[in-house]
Specification:
Blueprint: E1 2-5, E2 11-12, E3 27-30, H1 33-39, H2 42-48, H3 64-67, E4 86-87, H4 90-96, E5 101-105, H5 115-129, E6 133-137, H6 141-153, E7 156-162, H7 168-177, E8 180-184, H8 188-198, E9 205-206, H9 212-228, E10 236-240, H10 245-259, E11 268-274, H11 279-286, H12 312-321, E12 325-329, H13 331-343, H14 354-364, E13 374-378, H15 386-393, H16 415-423
Parallel strand pairs: 5-13, 6-7, 6-9, 7-8, 10-11, 10-13, 11-12
Antiparallel strand pairs: 1-2, 1-3, 4-5
The structure holds pyridoxal-5'-phosphate and zinc ion.
Pyridoxal-5'-phosphate binds next to α10.
C-alpha cells in the first residue's frame, strides 16, 4: 500500500502527510490487491456483516483488507458507519421509468451522510499518525462528519464553512459535536483553496476528499452495494457530483472488486450535477481537455454548490473506464425528484435527489435502457436541510413550482372546519 501521484506517478509512503505531489497532482492510494485477494473471501465479509465485533461490524471496516490493511485495529475510530439499506419503492420506479431501480440510502449513516464512510478512515489515519488537529472546508456534511469523529477521539477540529451557505441541520451538527466552526466569507471553493494552501502551516491535518484516505473509505459504498446485491454489480450507479470525490471512490471500489474477482463486471458510472454548478458536465459534453471552473455556482442543492471540483481528473477516469456518462439537472427537477424520494418514506436532502432526477432524464434520453438494473445513491439525510423541504411544500422557493406539493392546512379547533379539511 502506498500513495501515488495521479499525474506523474511519483510514489510516497503511506505515513507521509501530504495531499499533493510536487507537480501538484492529487494522490491516490495504490492497494496491494494480490495480497488483499489472499486475505479476503466473500465468506469473511458475510460473517462480518451484521456482527457486533469492533471494528468489523462497521460497513467500512468490514472491508479493512481492501481499504487500509496496515492500520492496527486499536487505532481505528469507528461508529458503525455504513451498513445502509438498499430500498426500492413503486413511486420511485414509476417516476424514473425503470423496473429495477434501487436507492442506497447513505443518509442512514451516523451523522446522516456518506461522508462518514470516508471520514472514519481519514480520522483513523490521523490517529494512526498521532495527529490531533484536523480540519476541513465544507458545504456542511464533511464538517458534520468530521466533528462527530473528533468528538469521539477527543481531537481538535476546525471547520471552514461558507457563511450563510450551509444547511441548518449540518451547521447545528458542527456546533453541537463541538468543533471550532469558522464561518468564512466567500464560497466553498475559496474556503477549500485556503485550507489546501495553509493547513500544513497551521499544523492541521486536512480531511477533505483530496485526502486519499477519504476516498479509500468511500469505496466501501461500492463494496457494500455489491455484497447486498449478492456480489453482482448493477448495470449503472448514479450519484450527484460536487467535488467529485464520491464518483472517484465508487469507480475505484468497483474496479478493485472486479480485479480480485468478486464481481464479474463494473457498473457504468453516471455523475449528475446541478445546472448551476456544472463544470464537470460541461467538460464532458463539450469534450474539453481540462476543467473550466464555474465562478459563481448557484443551486438549492448546497452540498453540490461547487464550481471547481478538485477530484475531476479522478472522476473523469472512472466515468471513462466504466463507459459512464455525466448529466445535469435543474433545481426544479431536483426538488420534484426529492419530493418523490421523500414520499416513499426514505427521504433525502436536495443534492441527493440529483441521482433520481438524473436517472429519470437518462431513461428519457434512452441512455439507460428500461430493463437495466440501476442504483441511485441518496447521499444525505432528509433532516439535513429542512428549510428546502418546507419551503418547497409552502411554494416559497424562487423559480420553483412544486409539482408534488403537500401544503399544511390551517384550521381552528372546530369540528366543522376540521371535518371539511380532512375530507376536502
Ligand atoms: C458531499 C456531498 C455530495 C457531493 O459529493 P462529492 O464527493 O463532493 O462529489 C453530494 N451529496 C451530499 C449530500 C453530500 O454531502
Ligand atoms: Zn506528480
Amino acid at each position: 500500500m502506498l500513495q501515488k501521484c495521479i499525474d506523474c506517478g511519483k510514489e510516497f509512503p503511506v505515513n507521509e502527510v501530504r495531499y499533493e505531489c510536487g507537480c501538484s497532482g492529487l494522490l491516490e492510494i495504490v492497494q496491494d490487491l494480490k495480497a488483499a485477494k489472499k486475505a479476503v473471501s466473500k465468506k469473511l465479509f458475510e460473517g462480518r456483516m451484521g456482527s457486533r465485533e469492533y471494528p468489523y461490524g462497521s460497513g467500512v471496516w468490514r472491508y479493512k483488507e481492501l481499504i487500509h490493511p496496515l492500520i492496527p485495529d486499536e487505532k481505528i475510530v469507528s461508529i458503525w458507519e455504513g451498513n445502509t439499506g438498499i430500498h426500492f419503492g413503486e413511486p420511485l420506479r414509476g417516476y424514473v421509468g425503470l423496473g429495477n431501480f434501487f436507492v442506497k440510502a447513505q443518509g442512514e449513516n451516523p451523522t446522516g451522510s456518506f461522508k462518514d464512510n470516508g471520514m472514519t478512515v481519514a480520522i483513523s489515519q490521523a490517529n494512526f499518525l498521532g495527529l490531533r488537529k484536523v480540519a476541513c472546508a465544507s458545504t456542511g456534511n464533511t464538517s458534520a462528519s468530521m466533528a462527530a469523529y473528533c468528538a469521539i477521539e477527543k481531537m481538535n477540529g476546525i471547520v471552514f464553512v461558507p457563511k450563510g451557505n450551509i444547511a441548518m441541520g449540518k451547521l447545528s451538527q458542527a456546533l453541537a459535536y463541538g468543533v471550532k466552526t469558522l464561518q468564512v466569507e466567500g464560497n466553498f471553493d475559496e474556503a477549500l483553496k485556503f485550507v489546501r494552501a495553509n493547513s500544513l502551516k497551521l499544523g492541521m491535518y486536512l480531511v477533505n476528499s483530496i485526502n486519499p484516505f477519504r476516498i479509500e473509505g468511500q469505496k466501501s459504498i461500492a463494496f457494500e452495494m455489491a455484497q447486498q446485491m449478492g456480489w453482482k454489480a448493477p448495470d449503472w450507479v448514479i450519484m450527484p457530483g460536487g467535488n467529485l470525490g464520491n464518483a472517484s471512490a465508487i469507480g475505484k471500489g468497483f474496479r478493485e472488486l472486479n480485479e480480485i474477482g468478486f464481481v464479474e463486471k463494473i457498473p457504468r458510472i453516471a455523475v449528475v450535477q446541478s445546472k448551476g454548478a456544472n463544470p464537470f458536465c460541461r467538460l464532458w459534453k463539450e469534450g474539453l481537455d481540462s476543467l473550466i471552473p464555474v465562478n459563481e455556482p448557484h443551486t438549492i442543492a448546497s452540498a453540490v454548490k461547487i464550481g471547481n471540483p478538485v477530484s475531476w481528473k479522478k472522476a473523469l477516469r472512472e466515468v471513462q473506464a466504466s463507459k459512464g456518462v455525466v448529466e445535469e439537472v435543474s433545481d426544479q427537477e431536483i426538488m420534484d425528484a426529492k419530493a418523490i424520494v421523500d414520499s416513499t418514506g426514505i427521504g433525502c436532502e436536495p443534492a441527493s435527489a440529483c441521482s433520481v432526477a438524473g436517472a429519470k432524464k437518462l431513461v428519457e434520453n434512452g441512455i439507460i435502457k428500461s430493463h437495466e438494473v440501476v442504483v441511485g445513491l441518496l447521499t444525505g439525510n432528509i433532516l439535513k436541510d429542512p428549510d428546502a423541504t418546507i419551503n418547497y411544500h409552502l411554494n416559497k422557493l424562487e423559480g420553483i413550482t412544486p409539482k408534488f406539493q403537500n401544503r399544511p392546512v390551517e384550521v381552528g379547533l372546530d369540528f366543522g372546519q376540521i371535518k371539511k379539511a380532512i375530507e376536502g
